Amino acid sequence: MLIIVQHSEIFIILACLFGFFMAWGVGANDVANAMGTSVGSKAITIKQAILIAVIFEFLGAWLAGGEVTATIRGGMLDPVLLADNPHLLVYGMLSALLAAAIWLMIASARGWPVSTTHSIVGAIVGFGAVGLGVDAVAWGKVGQIASSWIISPLLAGTIGFVLFKSVHHLIFENDDPFAAAKRYVPGYIFLVGFIVAMVTLTKGLKHIGLHLSFGQSLLISIAIGLIIMALGVVMERRVKYVQNTSDHFGYANVERVFGVLMIFTACAMAFAHGSNDVANAVGPLAAVISVVRSEGVIDSAALVPWWVLVLGGGGIVVGLVTYGHKVIATVGTGITELTPSRGFAATLAAATTVVLASGTGLPISTTHTLVGAVLGVGLARGLAALNLRVIGTIVMSWLITLPAGAGLAILFFFMFKGMFGS
């Protein structure tokens, strides 16, 4: 208690710095979930992707990212064991933020799309097990998260495979692919609006005090889907058939119709991602601020102050602008060649998986989900369409993430104990 009072200002300054660093890592690495497929399919340029993400990631983080201190409330650690030593929680959360941020910086520099969720979870498990004792960690929760490594990519890959096959059957195998695209794409636009609205309503807006039932979310999402479909139809009508002697079947014109769809997908996924994943940076930061301001009282339901969300949103934007292009390139072009129709199938598959996981309470990684969806779309074209070397590197980076975060967090935890006292 005395340690917290003595060093309160230092703890808050360090928490803000490390929280911004972690948010920078989220922007540099995880924003590729929203932007990678759009850029890789050439539906939008890298500059347009950064502009869309800057606006919608920040809005998502600020408007709908007010998550309570999820790392404690979610059951990763037992608050009872920390009640007598609240300063250990402060050391641990500072260590977790710094460890996860450093790992994300390394991964981003290498172009590896790793999970920010698993980076922070690994860090918290690491300091909890070594610094507080093995019993302090909810191992059942950790096992559940580990199982999502397999489940979420498989589910997203399957949905992506089926979606792309449906596009191929309904549109590309049609006698007039361009006319078929004009006819069926509005239905896919509705699906995008509906699914992404469900992602946002079931995963994001709870945290600004808007608690909607599943039925309410469903009705609102249907309405949003219809509005977006109407807007898409208006934009689609502007896409005119361009005769090209080298494109006998008119597939390039079909992809231009899907390009309209990808603009909607990019904006909506950026907002949903900002609202959800900013919690990885501001959750531990809010925990530190809550404990320091209350002079050692641990409140597992402490709300995140608005300025912390702005700091998190700002960090995400800076990370994307300065370093995001490397992971975008890996997701967008490294795994398989993407076109707007393939990119659409992958993004919608990833969004659908997140919605299903939200409904069942399964903790999943958006990174793993999207990479799985891109793999499924690539597989729909045959194994030869996949870059197996890049896939192997990505899987290895996933396996390393938890122990890397844990090891760094343990190191920093004991460093802070040495600096400030135990």
Can you give keywords for this protein?
single chain, 422 residues
State the gist of this model.
Helices cover 78% and strands 0% of the residues. It has helices at residues 2-6, 8-30, 32-40, 46-64, 70-73, 79-82, 86-110, 116-132, 139-172, 177-204, 214-236, 251-277, 279-293, 306-323, 325-334, 340-360, 366-379, 388-420.
The overall pLDDT average reads: 78
Main beta sheet, described? none
Share of residues in strands: under 5%
Task: Evaluate the radius of gyration.
Answer: 22 Å
How many beta-strand elements?
Answer: 0
Distance between the termini: 11 Å
Return the structural class. Answer: mainly alpha
Helix content: over 70%
Q: Label the overall shape.
A: elongated
**Number of helical elements:** 18
Low-confidence stretches: 67-74
Order of helices and strands: HHHHHHHHHHHHHHHHHH
Describe the structure in your own words.
There is one protein chain. The protein is mostly helical. It is built from 18 helices and no strands. The termini are close together. The model is unreliable at 67-74 (pLDDT under 50).
Layout of SSEs?
Blueprint (H helix, E strand, L loop, with lengths): L1 H5 L1 H23 L1 H9 L5 H19 L5 H4 L5 H4 L3 H25 L5 H17 L6 H34 L4 H28 L9 H23 L14 H27 L1 H15 L12 H18 L1 H10 L5 H21 L5 H14 L8 H33 L2
Helix pairs in contact: 2-7, 2-13, 2-14, 3-4, 3-12, 3-15, 3-16, 4-12, 4-14, 7-8, 7-13, 7-18, 8-18, 9-16, 9-17, 10-11, 10-12, 10-16, 11-12, 12-16, 13-14, 16-17
